[in-house]
């Protein structure tokens, strides 16, 4: 049985380097479609363009305007393919305009060296049964962000004070994560996971959904089956913008994805 993720990111070939997509309204957040979902759709189209190199290694995307539910097209162009990596440009177009443009480097994670040397530390999340389900989010959040129904998220209780008007002020949100239908997340799906949690500015007492300006994701490994642990942090809110740094760890204790995005500060 196909996963909801696969159904909602399905592509229809319309010509060389051109695919049709149907943006599902279940991925809405605030006034537009979630940026991670859009990046996942682009990621699937890029994988089709270079089938011998199926996995994203580095993807950098710029969001030009908000996407809406409904028909869209994805255009890809292979800029270089040789050796172990390929470079591909991609755009998501809708209603005659470009909504999202990206440059991606793809390869085969299974063919990469398996040695690991890292100083990164795994998120120290409480056990699942001691965490707070995303379904308990305030009604306003659930209403304006139907994408939360796509996930099973269990938040660290230390990071959810914002739900009762008592944000920690640390600029840190972390949670256990899996898809709501239980299907496993693949490397392309990690592009979505890096933008799945609520904006980290919620923990600063700045509610409201934050439009992404730019998002860069590095995928480091194929995730092991099971729950993911996702950590979002910010250190600087300035000029009406903030950065959001994300780490995704798999059930085997590996850092499988990292990202940084620049987003607009939420407005009341």
Short description:
The chain has helices at residues 4-8, 35-49, 139-144, 189-193; strands at residues 11-15, 18-23, 28-29, 32-33, 55-63, 70-82, 85-94, 97-107, 132-133, 151-155, 172-179, 212-219, 228-233, 237-238, 241-249, 255-264. It is mainly β.
Describe the structure.
This protein is mainly beta and 268 residues long. The protein contains four helices and 16 strands. Strands 1, 2, 5, 6, 7, 8, 9, 10, 11, 12, 13, 14, 15 and 16 form a 14-stranded antiparallel β-sheet that branches. A two-stranded antiparallel ribbon has the order 3-4. The radius of gyration is 18 Å and the shape is globular. The relative contact order is 0.16.
Name the descriptors:
268 residues; mainly beta; 14-stranded antiparallel β-sheet; two-stranded antiparallel sheet; 16 strands; globular
Largest sheet descriptor: 14 strands, antiparallel
Q: N- to C-terminal separation?
A: 42 Å
> Given the helix and strand composition, which structural class is it?
mainly beta
Q: Give helix and strand order, one letter per element, not per position.
A: HEEEEHEEEEEHEEHEEEEE
Alpha-carbon Rg, integer: 18 Å
**What do the pLDDT scores average to?**
93
Quaternary state reads single chain
| E-strand count | 16
Are there runs of 5+ residues with pLDDT below 50, and where? none
Name the shape in a single word: globular
Number of helices in the DSSP assignment: 4
- What proportion strand? 35-45%
Helical content class: 10-25%
């Amino acid at each position: 049985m196909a996963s909801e993720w696969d159904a909602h990111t399905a592509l229809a070939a319309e010509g060389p380097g051109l695919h049709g997509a149907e943006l599902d309204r279940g991925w809405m957040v605030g006034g537009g479609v979630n940026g991670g979902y859009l990046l996942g759709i682009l990621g699937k189209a890029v994988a089709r363009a270079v089938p011998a190199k199926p996995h994203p290694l580095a993807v950098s995307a710029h969001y030009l305007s908000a996407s809406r539910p409904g028909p869209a097209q994805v255009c890809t162009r292979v800029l270089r393919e040789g050796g172990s990596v390929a470079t591909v440009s991609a755009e998501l177009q809708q209603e005659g305009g470009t909504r999202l443009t990206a440059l991606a480097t793809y390869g085969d994670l299974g063919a990469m060296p398996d040695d690991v040397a890292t100083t990164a530390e795994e998120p120290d999340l409480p056990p699942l049964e001691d965490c707070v389900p995303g379904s308990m989010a305030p009604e306003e959040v659930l209403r304006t962000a139907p994408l939360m129904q796509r996930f099973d998220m269990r938040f660290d209780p230390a990071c959810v004070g914002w739900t009762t008007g008592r944000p920690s002020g640390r600029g840190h949100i972390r949670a256990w994560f899996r898809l709501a239908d239980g299907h496993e997340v693949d490397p392309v799906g990690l592009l979505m996971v890096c933008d799945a949690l609520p904006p980290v500015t919620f923990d600063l007492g700045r509610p409201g959904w934050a439009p992404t300006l730019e998002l860069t994701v590095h995928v480091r490994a194929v995730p092991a089956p099971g729950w993911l642990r996702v950590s979002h942090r910010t250190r600087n809110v300035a000029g009406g913008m903030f950065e959001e740094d994300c780490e995704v760890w798999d059930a085997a204790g590996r850092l499988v994805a990292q990202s940084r995005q620049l987003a607009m500060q939420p407005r009341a």
